[in-house]
Amino acid sequence: MAKGRPGKAVANERSHPFIIEVPVAANGLDRALSREIVAFHKSQYVKPRFGRTIFRDGQSYFRWCFSDLDIARAFLEKFGGAFYKTTGA
């Protein structure tokens, strides 16, 4: 799901500076979690914005990007992960 055009992912991270990194299994998100994430975005009336997929210390992380801090915090509370500190935010 987070694998897309790298230029689009970077643009999302620049224009939506509140980024949540969620650790995922090597085979990606399972269907149930993916559906929950889509439902979350719909409930908040925001389009899902994906950032880059990051590989660090043998772990994969998917990034979701938000322009609203409160929605980013709600996503973090529901799905876990961690805020990624951008240089512009």
Describe this structure in words.
By secondary structure, this protein is of the alpha+beta class. 38% of the residues lie in helices and 28% in strands. It is built from three helices and four strands, in the order H-E-H-E-E-H-E. The chain has a four-stranded antiparallel β-sheet. The chain is globular, with a radius of gyration of 12 Å.
At a glance:
This protein is of the alpha+beta class and about 90 residues long. Helix content is about 40%, strand content about 30%.
Count of the domains: 1
Provide the residue-averaged pLDDT: 88
Number of helices: 3
Radius of gyration: 12 Å
In the predicted model, the low-confidence regions spanning at least 5 consecutive residues are none
In the CATH hierarchy, what is the architecture at level 2? 2-Layer Sandwich
CATH topology name, in short, is Alpha-Beta Plaits
DSSP, total strands: 4
Measured distance between first and last alpha carbons: 25 Å
User: Strand-and-helix sequence, N→C?
Assistant: HEHEEHE
Sheet with most strands: 4 strands, antiparallel
Shape, please?
globular
Percent in strands: 25-35%
Structural class determined from secondary elements: alpha+beta
**What is the helix fraction of residues, given as a range?**
25-40%
